[in-house]
Protein 1
Amino acid sequence: MRIAVAKEIEVCERRVALIPDTVARLVKQGLEVWVETGAGERSFFSDTAYEAAGAKIIADTATLWGEADILLKVSPPQEREDGRSEIDLLKEGAVLISFLNPLGNPLVAQQLKNRKVTALSMELIPRSTRAQSMDALSSQASLAGYKAVLIAAATLPKYFPMLTTAAGTIAPAKVFIMGAGVAGLQAIATARRLGAVVEAFDIRPAVKEEVQSLGAKFVEVKLEEETTAAGGYAKEISEASKQRTQEVVAEHVKNSDVVITTAQVPGRKAPLLVTEEMVSQMKPGSVIVDLAAEQGGNCACTEPGKDIVWNGVTIIGPINLPSSMPVHASQLYAKNVTSLMQLLITKEKALQVNFGDDIVDAACITHAGEIRNQRVQEALTAFNTQQPAIS
Ligand code: NAD
């Protein structure tokens, strides 16, 4: 059984799918691990460190992809310089484990299906207790929440903590976190550690206690509809509820020095939470960090990948924040994919894709030339009806 770690070619991607420590554990387990030359370079793990852990370093990309039984990646497969997709390098029947963004870009599923690859999408790992060690959405969202606060603190022309000095007293910064999922809760904890006064808002009332236990005030909006969908995720809410929440949160946005938005609804464009009108009410010098920038943004003024200044307010729309902390992001991701792989490897070190396992079943989007996930199939059908058909 050969596990291969690809070098990421996406320009913004600095993470790597396995780190030397996890390689050593797999090798000890009796598995063969190949690592592409320079795969860990941008996350500060050298080829020498992988070799010392027992990996074989492979310089030829086509060999590494083509002879892998399980290919591990972080970012979804890309088009190469020669115009071919990385997916075309995989052998039939190989397993690909990666973030695949199959709902945002269902074409990837079509290509994987055509290639007869068994593809497991890290985004589709269920958020269950048993799958916690494999939950890469959580491990990476937590990094993003932490980093968002550091970016905000570095941009704000003020202190975060309250300070009493001989030159006078400094009032603490007011931070408002919108969306209290994994990223939001980590953002609350980080902003509190830096001494800010923190408020948080989420349409799921169930998070109130978690928010309060981190020392933040929960901004409550009573809505007359169910806001939680299956798996604990947020539902898309009605126009009336959107209106109601905007009325309540507007005052909190206005009074905040920093707003960090993290709200998402799986498979949909991110909800609009901060309107232009709200931004125009904020004090000059205030900062918004929009963690939903890649999904369309929670703020009307956000431009993905850019820092802009609008009416004196800095609005930051970071892309792939976890990748800006590649050492720990890779360490956590490596643990996530290693745990998932254990479900695919028998005691005899053979590959076994067991759809009786609910985690494998939920994460697998293509197998043996079929698309296995209904939502992905629906997204692909919708895509194909808008585009000329692809074979
Ligand atoms: P997410 O990234 O999908 O969304 C971030 C937050 O935005 C969520 O809390 C969501 O409720 C909120 N949101 C969505 N629309 C909003 C709106 N219009 N206004 C305000 N807030 C809005 O969330 P996530 O961090 O991936 O977590 C999703 C769910 O998964 C949560 O219930 C979480 O507790 C659960 N979870 C469970 C486990 C586990 O059991 N192992 C692990 C991680 C997360």
Protein 2
Amino acid sequence: MKEIVLSGIRSTGNLHIGNYFGALRNFIRMQDTSNCFFFIADLHSLTTHPDPENFHKNVKTVLAEYLASGLDPEKSVIFVQSTVPEVSELYTLMNMWSYVGELERTSSFKEKVRKHPNNVNAGLLTYPVLMATDILIHKAHKVPVGKDQEQHLEMSRVFARRFNNMYNVEFFPEPAAYNFGTDLVKVPGLDGSGKMGKSEGNGIYLTDDEKTVHRKVMRAVTDSGPVNPDAPMSEPVQNLFTILQIVSDGEVVRFYEEKYKSGGIRYGDMKKQLAEDICKITLPIRERILEIQGNDKYLDEVVKYGAEKARASASKTLAGVKEIMGFKWF
Ligand code: AMP
């Protein structure tokens, strides 16, 4: 049996090329080797009280972006969390073996309390319980997580173990972190330092048109040129080379590396090439995003198909849990 890999997707759209090369491209590859579940975590997003219009729009944007990038509803189970009511039912049960003390000690909860003291709702406290439910309900073996989610994954292991011990069963497998190893790339931003991120405003988005990509790349921070090509490269220039290595052919990269070393590099030329190579990858995706966003019928089919497959798997687990806990019909 192929191992089950599950990944949650935040329901905030507008993916940048950092998301694409850092995470999404690995997900797309993973579809051929694992039994993948990808879901849009719309219930989780309710902790911030989004207005209904935006709530729905965000799910649509994210779904269109992931499908356009190559997540395939035939290869994977792609679903929206709230369309699987079994998740909410298991979440209720899971809350019975999660303790307030351990939830209050979670770093992400403490951070939210500090940042948003006026909205410390119970959903925020039990966020890791819902996350564990998402994972355990499909008996996932592997979960790709970023650093900020490691503690939540550890809690999922604790909850799985606790249930197994409490009822003296070997029911839930303990989920492990999926490690992309050397495939993991960090895409730097265009502002000279640090990584590309949405809140940093230093990114190129999959929905950016050709003109926007060129304008952003041409404005990217560089330096005044290699004063001494043997000295270490400045960070902004190193960052541009890093993006070039990700999007361009080896020959192009070597050409500009040589130019840099010989002291004859013209950053304007390199940026023009970089923008063109980014566009080669992102523009076809952009076109598909727009197409999918305009096709509600297709999106509806994808969501219904995903819900059907996810519910089949979730209801099996839920039935098992309920039987173990002693729920019975008369
Ligand atoms: P975010 O929505 O910013 O939390 O990003 C979602 C995921 O995209 C992260 O967990 C990373 O795997 C990936 N990601 C985001 N920004 C970058 C980046 N600049 N370079 C590589 N991967 C990234």
